[in-house]
Design brief:
Elements lengths: L3 H21 L6 H14 L11 H4 L2 H22 L18 H18 L1 H19 L1 H26 L7 H19 L34 H22 L1 H9 L1
Helix pairs in contact: 1-2, 1-6, 1-8, 1-9, 2-6, 2-8, 5-6, 5-8, 6-7
């Protein structure tokens, strides 16, 4: 798997780059939606790995997230084996199957958006708690491992309460669904550049397979957790985040463009 911090950082980078694009095209992204959306996207960029019991997301909330991960793994395995084509071998594990598809990313975002629209603040608070917990575990991985899941959970609660206070009631909630979809899709795109690839187009049949693992040519793929990811990809994502943030903030963007 691509490392958890890389996934989380890629989510922030894509969110900030998108916000910068909106600003450059004449739109506006309020500061609350900009910051909260970036944090939620960072957390959601870890979400697809809930299908792997050893992943960062599975360890975020201790035994609770571990139990959820094992359940998702079983469901994903069942769906894969029930929908695979004859050319596809049966599997005993569900990693990089159901939760690593565009269908899952869109459905997760739609579910979050609908729940927040119908239930309001309780649903939004729950989404913020879960995704900010993943973001903290992803972006502050070493600190979170040293402190343990209990301290991480307490810190998550404080961060979620602050985000709820800052995020505009009603108007700010739709951004949560968008951020979850963007984060999950970013995760899938990150996995696509690794040796294994990602079944992004499920359930569409491609070349006789329903779970075709899309990936670039072999020469362009990277080894997850390898030297390229640490020495090149992470610095590049950090730079993209910095540039995107600068252009996403109107005052900073004005200074840059005027210069």
């Amino acid at each position: 798997m691509v490392m958890g911090p890389t996934h989380a950082l890629s989510g922030v980078a894509v969110w900030m780059a998108g916000a910068a694009g909106v600003q450059l095209l004449g739109g506006t992204v309020p500061s609350a939606e900009l910051a909260v959306g970036a944090a939620v996207t960072a957390g959601a960029a870890l979400l697809p790995d809930i299908d792997h019991p050893s992943s960062t997301v599975a360890r975020t909330f201790g035994p609770v997230s571990g139990a959820v991960s094992r359940a998702v793994d079983r469901v994903s395995t069942t769906v894969y084996n029930a929908t695979r084509m004859p050319r596809e071998a049966p599997r005993t594990g569900g990693h990089r199957t159901l939760t690593h598809t565009a269908v899952f990313a869109v459905a997760a975002g739609a579910l979050v958006g609908t729940a927040c629209g119908l239930l309001g603040r309780p649903a939004a608070a729950t989404v913020l708690f879960l995704t900010l917990g993943l973001a903290i575990r992803g972006l502050m991985g070493r600190w979170a491992r040293r402190q343990g899941w209990v301290v991480t959970t307490l810190m998550t609660g404080g961060a979620a309460a602050a985000a709820m206070w800052w995020l505009p009631t009603g108007r700010g909630y739709p951004v949560l669904g968008v951020a979850v979809t963007v984060g999950a899709l970013t995760h899938c795109l990150g996995d696509m550049i690794t040796k294994q690839g990602c079944p992004l187009a499920w359930p569409i049949v491609y070349r006789g397979k329903r779970w075709w693992e899309f990936a670039p040519p072999a020469a362009l793929r990277i080894r997850a957790g390898g030297g390229f990811e640490k020495a090149v990809l992470v610095p590049a994502l950090t730079a993209l985040t910095a540039v995107g943030t600068a252009f996403a903030i109107p005052e900073v963007q004005a200074v840059i463009l005027s210069g």
